[in-house]
Every structure is written in C-alpha cells, then in structure tokens.
Amino acid sequence: MSNSRKVKIIGTGSYLPEKILSNADFEKMIEVTDEWIVTRTGVKERRIAGKEEFSSTMGILAAKRAMEVAGITAEEIDFIIVATITPDYAFPSTACLIQEGLKAKKAAAVDINAACSGCLYALMMAKAMIESGSAKNILIIAAEKFSSIVNYKDRSTCILFGDGAAANVVSGRGDRDGLEVRSLCLGADGEQANLLIMPAGGCRNPPSYKTVEEGMHFVQMAGNEVFRHAVRQMESSCKECLQLLGMQESSINWLIPHQANERIIDAIARRFRHLPPEKIIKTVKKYGNTSASSIGIALDELLRGGGVQEGENILLTAFGAGFTWGSAILTKVAT
Ligand code: UT7
User: Fold this and answer.
1) What does the pLDDT look like over 273-295, one tens digit per residue?
2) Which of 5, 149, 302, 326 has the highest count of CB atoms within 10 angstroms of its CB?
3) Which residue of the set 116, 158, 238, 241 is catalytic?
4) What number does the ligand 1 atom closest to the CA of 196 have?
5) In this structure, which CATH number among 3.40.47.10, 3.40.630.30, 3.40.50.2300, 3.40.720.10 belongs to the domain 181-333?
C-alpha cells in the first residue's frame, strides 16, 4: 500500500532505576579499578533495577512518558512491540504484561529478540505496519533488566551493563510534530552467535543443576572480538543508511551510537568529524550498556534537552548479539 504515508516518532520516554552501582562499588567487589573501567569503557556508573522492578514494569513507566509526550491514550495504541533479551518470563511475552499494565486493550502485543539492536528492529516493523495501513499508532518499547543475567564475578562483562527502558510512539498521523523515520537498514550474522551468548535457559540447554553450576545462565562475551565486529558493522550500516537517501555524512546533525563502550562510540564518530562532541550523544558514562534500551534512552534524553531543531537529521546505529545491527536516519519535522 501507500509508501507515501510519513511514519514518525511522535513521543519518546525512558525510565532508569534509582539504584546506582558505581565503579567504586566494583572496586570493593572484584579485582578491578575505576581507572581501568573508565579508560577501557568510559563507564563510571550504571543503574540497577530493584527486586520488584522488571523489564515489564520499567517498560510501562517509559511507555507512559512516551504516550504523554505523544498526547495519545492507551486505547489509541493498536500494536505493542517489546525488544528485550531479559523478558519477565520465557512466556507469556513482556509485551502482553505491558499491554495489561497500560490497559491498552485494543493493542496486539509481541516481543522480539535482536539484543542491543532490538529497538531498530522494532522500528522497522512498526514503520512497515504503518506504511501498509495495518496499524495506526504503535508503541515500541525496549526494556532490559540486564543485571538479572550478569555474573558479578566476571569482571570482563559485569562492569559494562546496566538496567533501563525506553519507549517510542510511532505513528502515521499527519497532525503531530515528531521525528520522521526516513531511512532504516538492518543486518545479521548468525555465524558469530557464540561470541555473545547466554547459553542456557532455552531448549538446547534447559535449566539444570549443571547449567547453574557452570554459570550458563549468565551473559558470556568474547569482548575483544565483539568490539571489532561492532565498530565494523555499525560503520558500514551507517554508510548504507546514508546511501539509501543519497546523503553525505556532513548532513547528519546528531549521532546516537549504541552505548556499549565509549571507545566504540569514538571509533564510529571518527567518520563524522564535522560533529562537535556535544552532538555525539553519550550516556554510557552514567548508564553503561543497557542493551536494547541504549539508543532509545539516549534519544529521549536528547529530545528532552530541547536542542534538536526542525529539519535536523539524527543518525542512530546499534549492534548486538546474534550478531544483529542496524541504523536509522530520523528528521525532525513539524506539521
Ligand atoms: O552490546 C553488545 C556489544 N558489546 C560490546 O560491543 C562490548 C565490546 N567489548 C568491549 O567493550 C571490550 O572488549 C571490553 C571492555 C569487554 C574489554 O576491553 P578490552 O580493551 O577489549 O580488554 P581485553 O579483553 O583485551 O583485556 C585486556 C586486559 C586482559 O588482561 P591481559 O590478558 O592483558 O593480562 C584482561 O584480563 O584487561 C583485563 N581485564 C580487566 N582488567 C581489569 C578485562 N576486564 C577487566 C576489568 N578490570 N574489568
């Protein structure tokens, strides 16, 4: 159907738990220094969900904020897509729990798993559904209680990750200001699945004493190799996304890379030398890597700061387990 229907993000929201886990806390827990963490990753602290906070509850709070900005009610939402690799349960989906929490009774609901690229995969699905006319207002939510799958004795991973959620209301409505989704590209490489994985809990290694004893319910990562792939794939994905619109790097006004590691962000930013540091959005210092939520939280903070002008282009890029990756170009438009 109509490809001319403009798809826009008309509201964003995010939620971060209150509890802070700082590098100083880690110095007391494991063999690590604040200096090592800051120089190798850029992370100073991360947020950790409370005992009674889950991906669903954090997602609901982020969604309420996004809906408030968008000025739409729960009854107007006709689809909910939740990107998470730390769902409340294997099933039912976290999307169904959020649907109930929001009382979005007219919405269909589904979870997707694309790890840290999840919110861009969700955005692609939302865009396609709106363009095809099969939905009008879609809530996409990324929510992660990553602390639930982190081994706090594994210093190569535990220092990196944090919890949080982000939400976007995606709509085809012409009467709302927002960010037009101009270009989106996604990719995957399942050959590299073992480099970033939680090996147990699925049907291949169902929970058992052995899987628990061997720490197979924790995230496991070959950090160095993941780092190299992340830089390479996000760089080429940004390029592909620009080419789709016939745009040059210089047309980008704001860059939001996945917040995995400040060194990765800086490597990608080298392609965008025209951008001053304040236009390269970094939340990694205060939140660490919040997986699927990472670029959504950064986008929400950027918009709430009020600095984005009409006509400006924002480039989002992400990379995660699978491997999966993707990029999107959003342009601020007014009605
Ligand atoms: O969200 C999905 C995408 N995720 C990512 O993109 C993460 C990508 N990877 C990374 O961010 C980095 O690879 C890490 C931060 C995980 C590690 O940094 P690195 O510079 O790649 O360090 P390394 O793994 O090469 O390790 C260097 C040294 C090793 O010691 P030796 O073998 O040189 O003696 C590690 O044992 O640093 C040691 N090390 C640590 N030392 C102090 C590793 N972790 C720590 C630590 N504190 N936390």
Assistant:
1) 999 999 999 999 999 999 999 99
2) 326
3) 116
4) 2
5) 3.40.47.10
